[in-house]
Amino acid sequence: MREEFLALWQAVLPHAALAGDTLVLRDYHVDNLMLLQDRPGVRGCGLLDFQDAVCGPPSYDLVSLIEDARRDVPAELRRMMTERYLAAFPDSTGRLSSARRRSSRLKRNCKILGIFTRLWKRDGKPGYLAHIPRIWRLLEQDLGHPALAPIARWLDRHLPRGARRAPDVGGAA
Predict the structure, then answer these.
(1) Could you point out which of 16, 133, 135, 152 has its C-alpha 20 to 30 Å from the C-alpha of 162?
(2) pTM for the whole structure
(3) Could you read off the pLDDT tens digit of each residue along the chain, which spans 173 residues?
(4) Half-sphere exposure of 45 (CA within 13 A, CB side)
(5) How far is residue 64 from each of residues 6, 61, 123, 127, 138, measured CA to CA in Å?
(6) How many angstroms separate the CA atoms of 73 and 78, rounded?
(7) Smallest Cα–Cα separation from 107: which of 2, 13, 5, 24?
(8) SS3 90
């Protein structure tokens, strides 16, 4: 099962690849931003929790903001932030095809499911489980793309929709 899963990801990941990796913070969400009152405009945005930064796709942090794992972001705000990003980086528009965006988000959301589960199981932090339904909802939105059908079929076989929920903290899940 593991080998099949890894092979499917090897086939899908090229869809997520973008040329020109840049610095990404990975844990980029509203709780890690702070308003610096004495600075105007964009300079007034301070960053917290950036020690896990790595090289990655330029849109990764945008997706982290507009598809926040911890809270729902209104569709209109997501649209406006995406338009602003694309206007600021017009060369990226062609590289952000639908399949590429969806496979990149799918990869990110699968990773977050694993991280939140690990934080619960290994680190004894069950509070992260409250966000699991949102992550599954975001992930399932992307599974409908034809390029991601192999991953969708694998999940349907090994983790049916009824099982795609937060584990029962009281049980042995």
Answers:
(1) 16
(2) 0.80
(3) 999 999 998 888 776 665 677 888 888 888 999 999 999 998 999 988 888 889 887 778 888 888 899 999 999 999 999 888 888 877 665 555 666 677 778 888 898 999 999 999 999 999 999 999 999 999 998 888 888 889 999 999 999 999 999 888 765 44
(4) 8
(5) 24, 5, 23, 19, 12
(6) 7
(7) 13
(8) helix
